[in-house]
Structure formats: C-alpha cells, structure tokens
Amino acid sequence: LAGGIILGVALWLRHDSQTTNILYLQLGDKQAPNTFYVGIYILIAVGAVMMFVGFLGCYGAIQESQCLLGTFFTCLVILFACEVAAGIWGFVNKDQIAKDVKQFYDQAFQQALMAESETNNGKAVVKTFHETLDCCGPDNAIGAVTPLWRDDLCPKKDFILKTILETSNCHKKIDELFSGKLYLIGIAAIVVAVIMIFEMILSMVLCCGIRNSSVY
C-alpha cells in the first residue's frame, strides 16, 4: 500500500500540467532544464519496487520462510540506502533546480525582447511561462514595467493598476512552483523512510521468531 501511494504521488508530480508545460519547452537547440525529474523518477522506481518487495514480505510471512524474509530485509536496506542518497542529492540541488529554470526563462525573455525573436521561439517560450504561472517579467526593473508595454507577452489584465499590483514576477513564481513540489517529494520520502525502518525491524523480529520456534 505504501509503495502504491508513493507511486501515485510520483506519477502525479511527473504529469503535473504546470511542470510539464515548462520543462518540455525548447529554446532553439536548448532544452529546458529537467533535473527536477531525476527525483521524480527515483520516487517512481522506489514505489514500484516497494510494491513488489511488499508482496515478497507478505508471502514470506505467510509461508514462514526465513529465506524470503531475509531477502525482504535485504531489499529494504538497499531501497533505504537509495532513498537516503536521493534525499541528500535533492537537498543539495533544491536551489539549483529553480536557478537553472530561471536562467532558461531569462534567456528566452531577452530573445523575446530583441528583434531576433521573430526568427526563434523565444516569444512562444516566454508566453508559455507567463500563461502557465500567471506572471510577467523577470525579477528586475525591465520585468516590472513589461506588463505596461508588451501586451503580446504578458497575460491580459483589465486595468493597468491591477496589472502592477497583482502580476508577480516569474522568478518568484518559479521558486514557489518548485519549492512546493520538492516539499511534497520530501514529505513522501520521509514517510517511506519511516515505514521502511518499521518494516526492517518487524521482518527481523518475525524471522528470529520463526527460527526460535522451528522444530528442525
């Protein structure tokens, strides 16, 4: 059940419309940074393997097989080690992921403002960011005044004052998007780790109990 829940959360994060709209973008020959998906793929793999290992543990307990329970314990130790490594990787790279996406957006924004934007897809990339995140412009003076003179790039608003007050810069929105998703990944990883620890303890207790009560 825990494996199924983790797999479901990971698949939801993988196919979330906001992240897929942004991370599938391509600016000329450059692909949007998709380092974020590394953590998602690890969660998918862990969830799928947990479902199989859970079945192995249940079957081993029903059959009172020390071999199957020992295999179950070994698989859990390997999964736990992989999850800890993934957690360390995520903690180290949590700021870098948003930074890479912001740099990609800034490059597209600069191209969209220049005359050469007619010959590339910078304008389309920027509009996708703006429509997906409901934002306009980077975190600087140019970004602050962009809604006033580039209606072709920014989401349409009813009034200029409302545009200034309500439209957030895209750097802030990108930070909020990925910090929220990484927060969910972190919670899922902690829950899985706690469950794994209890599973390892209980599997060893059961294995020892079977050994001590064996008539052979």
UniProtKB/TrEMBL annotation:
One of its GO terms (cellular component) is basolateral plasma membrane. InterPro entries: Tetraspanin/Peripherin (IPR018499), Tetraspanin_animals (IPR000301), Tetraspanin_CS (IPR018503), Tetraspanin_EC2_sf (IPR008952). One of its GO terms (biological process) is regulation of cell population proliferation. The chain crosses the membrane at residues 36-62, 68-92, 182-206. It is a multi-pass membrane protein. Keywords: Adaptive immunity, Cell membrane, Disulfide bond, Immunity, Lipid-binding, Membrane, Transmembrane, Transmembrane helix. It is found in: Basolateral cell membrane; Membrane. Pfam families: Tetraspanin. Disulfide bonds join 135-170, 136-154. It comes from the Eukaryota. SUPFAM superfamilies: Tetraspanin. CDD domains: CD81_like_LEL. GO terms for molecular function: lipid binding. Coiled coil: none annotated. Belongs to the tetraspanin (TM4SF) family. PANTHER family: CD81 ANTIGEN, TETRASPANIN. This is Tetraspanin. It comes from Rynchops niger. The lineage of its organism: Eukaryota, Metazoa, Chordata, Craniata, Vertebrata.
